[in-house]
Specification:
The chain is mostly helical. It is built from 7 helices and no strands.
């Protein structure tokens, strides 16, 4: 069995994934270097993250009957990450709402997990047999990286743990799966 990739789609998805990875890495780096309010790095990080997700949703949805699933899942990830990061900020009003019980503190992580499960499932929907569920491995790697590994690494001041490699491997798999014809 040979795998045929659409080269234009592969290029566009790679650019989108690199924008998202660049946004996440620069934001995490700024936070770990105690520069959470850096006037250039933080806006750049968020711009790369949001623009990357919008571009990813657009390219992933092109030529698919289920393009709205890509849009919804991408929007879910963007919104949930944004609000989870805001909730983690020490001086943010959203954290006060969560602490006071006005907003369930698991809503945004739940949206993140469900959005990634949806994205992982639909990206491999065109595959057959057991590989039909290969996109869920992407979801597991991303969720494991972002919800388990990276927070643990941050707490323990570990810079070179498994979190970012898991994240990058998952994105490589996503680009490959979404580029298949």
């Amino acid at each position: 069995m040979s795998i045929v990739l659409d080269s234009g789609r592969f290029t566009n998805l790679s650019v989108a994934a690199l924008m998202i990875i660049g946004g996440v890495v620069s934001k995490n780096s700024a936070e770990q270097m105690d520069m959470p309010d850096h006037p250039f790095l933080m806006p750049l990080s968020w711009f790369l993250f949001f623009a990357g997700w919008i571009f990813l949703a657009y390219v992933s949805g092109q030529g698919n009957n289920n393009k709205y699933y890509y849009y919804v899942a991408s929007f879910g990830v963007m919104v949930s990450v944004y609000f989870m990061k805001r909730a983690m900020a020490q001086d943010d009003i959203i954290q006060d709402d969560i602490i006071q019980g006005e907003m369930p503190n698991m809503v945004f992580p739940g949206i993140f997990v469900m959005s990634w499960l949806m994205l992982g499932y639909i990206v491999s929907a065109k595959c057959t047999g057991a590989s039909r569920y290969s996109g869920l491995l992407v979801s597991v790697l991303i969720i494991g990286s972002m919800m388990l590994s990276l927070p643990t690494q941050r707490e323990n001041c570990v810079v070179d743990g498994p979190g970012m490699p898991m994240f990058v491997v998952a994105w490589t798999m996503y680009v490959m799966l979404a580029s298949m014809e």
